[in-house]
Amino acid sequence: xxxxxxxxxxxxxxxxxxxxxxxxxxxxxxxxxxxxxxxxxxxxxxxxxxxxxxxxxxxxxxxxxxxxxxxxxxxxxxxxxxxxxxxxxxxxxxxxxxxxxxxxxxxxxxxxxxxxxxxxxxxxxxxxxxxxxxxxxxxxxxxxxxxxxxxxxxxxxxxxxxxxxxxxxxxxxxxxxxxxxxxxxxxxxxxxxxxxxxxxxxxxxxxxxxxxxxxxxxxxxxxxxxxxxxxxxxxxxxxxxxxxxxxxxxxxxxxxxxxxxxxxxxxxxxxxxxxxxxxxxxxxxxxxxxxxxxxxxxxxxxxxxxxxxxxxxxxxxxxxxxxxxxxxxxxxxxxxxxxxxxxxxxxxxxxxxxxxxxxxxxxxxxxxxxxxxxxxxxxxxxxxxxxxxxxxxxxxxxxxxxxxxxxxxxxxxxxxxxxxxxxxxxxxxxxxxxxxxxxxxxxxxxxxxxxxxxxxxxxxxxxxxxxxxxxxxxxxxxxxxxxxxxxxxxxxxxxxxxxxxxxx
Length: 504
Ligand SMILES: Nc1ncnc2c1ncn2[C@@H]1O[C@H](COP(=O)(O)OP(=O)(O)OP(=O)(O)O)[C@@H](O)[C@H]1O
Ligand SMILES: [Mg+2]
Known about the structure:
The strands form five sheets. A six-stranded mixed beta sheet has the order 6-7-8-3-9-10, with helices on both faces. A six-stranded mixed beta sheet has the order 16-19-20-13-21-22. The termini are far apart. It has helices at residues 43-50, 73-79, 96-101, 106-109, 115-129, 144-157, 174-189, 201-207, 230-238, 297-304, 327-332, 342-346, 353-358, 375-388, 405-416, 435-450, 462-468, 491-498; strands at residues 3-14, 17-28, 32-37, 58-63, 66-68, 81-84, 162-166, 193-197, 210-215, 218-223, 256-266, 272-282, 286-290, 312-317, 320-321, 335-338, 368-369, 372-373, 423-427, 454-458, 471-476, 479-484. The protein is an alpha/beta fold and 504 residues long. The chain is built from 18 helices and 22 strands. It has two domains: 3-238, P-loop containing nucleotide triphosphate hydrolases (Rossmann fold); 256-498, P-loop containing nucleotide triphosphate hydrolases (Rossmann fold, 3-Layer(aba) Sandwich), CATH 3.40.50.300. The longest helix has 16 residues, at 174-189. The structure holds adenosine-5'-triphosphate and magnesium ion. Residues 43-44, 166, 404-405 line the site of magnesium ion. Residues 14, 17, 19, 37, 39-45, 392, 402-407, 434 line the site of adenosine-5'-triphosphate (ATP).
């Protein structure tokens, strides 16, 4: 089939980094084309160039057979190139339809938006591509998977023929991934083209028609799924064999590092979010917490960190009552916290890396000097983190926002695992990191466990839960519905428990 998109010799430099060099890419019409590569390989940069968000230093782009000059996303949209953002840009206080219309050219709808016309068009798009959305639903009621469908509908509404999805599955649970894939297959059946980025090689092998591999800023190979496998793809990405996480023997200590004692949490609006949670974690073990997002996981973590107080019951963290202890004192007593939303809670995007090393640790040695921050120590220790966790960056003076998503995550994990924590609260610790970095992070969590730390691993990645957990607790609708032994259960059984189904 003809190429709808052709990229030749694209170059993009940032201070100290070549983000894209001599990139070439050929995308066939009506195909799902997957781009894979290590964190920092240049995937997002290339997608931003194709969407007009970033101007390349050199190179050519042909779309629909014609050379194009993309100066802005408006140019891209006009040409039929749309991008679904990973960090959704939707308004919570509006309906699906309002969100879809928001930002569309006023010339098409006049200054008074023609809602009926727009609703009809949106309904047609939904029906045509099998997108399950309700135009009049309020966005505030929608989960992550549904929000993503709204983003896709929004792009289609603006007439996109080429859809760019940068790590769309990172935020989805397995069932939602299946739904997304069904939608994507429908789109390409109707002649649209999808560019799809993911770090999950199983997904790529199952959904892609073509795979292009990037390494260190350039396109190094392309494959058809039927002619390759996970091992070869991983090796093409990293240029060598992958490290393997080592499982050590389980040595559980007497000490409870975390204890939920009949803890419930009722929100201000009266909704019961957590219901009589009883859970202990001892030093030396990893407890996985499985569940569909939005079943109380975030609030459970906030109770541990002293950000919320239980309505009834008690949460003890390293023997301290979390409800009456300041978050900074909880951290200082030996709690590491890897937050789920790295850009919101984990990093100051506009500050250099070394300042981000201090974030949340400004009151503890070695980074504190009386009431001041010890810059020298922060710089030195940032360099150590960069080295140990293989954070790809030109230095520790660059802004956090200049790092690729996966490298930001590696930096947070490295910072939090510094200084021998006794309890590690890890929410989606490997979200968005490549297979090599995932192995490094898994290895560090295993090492912390061997060193006697207790770990609460909250993850949507079943593979991760099975690879690391000594026990897996399942949360559903605010209650712990079961605690499973990973060696005696299957991913299917776990997936079923996560939906609230009672096991036979
Ligand atoms: N605005 C920027 N300023 C400076 N450097 C940048 C900027 N954007 C990206 N870079 C650098 O360009 C390189 C490529 O980054 P990019 O985001 O394209 O990687 P990626 O392949 O998408 O990685 P990931 O899998 O982690 O998302 C990285 O080294 C990154 O630090
Ligand atoms: Mg990226």
